[in-house]
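Subject: sequence -> structure tokens, single chain

Hey, anyone have a minute? Need the predicted structure for the following. Not urgent.
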Amino acid sequence: MKVLVAVKRVLDFNSKIRIKADGSGVDTEHVKKSLNPFDEIALEEAVRLKEKKIAQEIVVISIGNEECQETLRSALAFGADRAILVKTERDLLPWHVAQMLHAIVEQEKPMLVLLGKQAIDDDCNQTGQMLAGLLDWPQGTFVSRLDIQGMSAEVAREIDEGLQLLKIQLPAVITTDLRLNEPRYTSLPNIVKARNKPLTVITEQDLKVTLKVHIAIVKVTAPLQRKSGVILNNIKELLNVLKEKHGILP
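Reply:
Had a minute. Here:
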């Protein structure tokens, strides 16, 4: 079985986010970037499938600028066998990413596509679902347990009411949630080995995908600063505050 894992390079979750002076977007210069945590969980699950002899090859793919090679090398050190970078300088919407991944899947013919349920930079939570729709494949989203038996997969999905158990046929698209696994640390020998693993760089033109921009970002602003709260000793004080400052009668 070949497993394709899609990963995204995002601003590190410990980084301080700044808005550009012209309000056109987030300032990403001189800010630490790292592998999207949800995608790291997807990669860990792919490596575990290979350790169980269920998967024979792990192909990791990222879409972005030249800096994404660093993220892909980290994924190769993590345990992936080879990597593909679709090089582009443009800002992509989830629909664009799904279209590109669809083209890669058509070329690579994996039996399983794994990706994080969302990226922590935009929190869109759309790419996996769109990809499954384009492929007309079954999908398991928000997966916290994955068990593959032959040509089917049993998944536990995290939903508002608890867990939903599904059995889906392969090939399929799976998006991973936090409780699926705990990613391992990368060892120094694997980091060294990753330098010699194949990393192919292609362009969006090579995929022959027409990307239409249908959403424009007008302005980006930082959230308003919240006023500090006050601690009240009892319900009587609360009623007085509501009456005096907010005009709410008890």
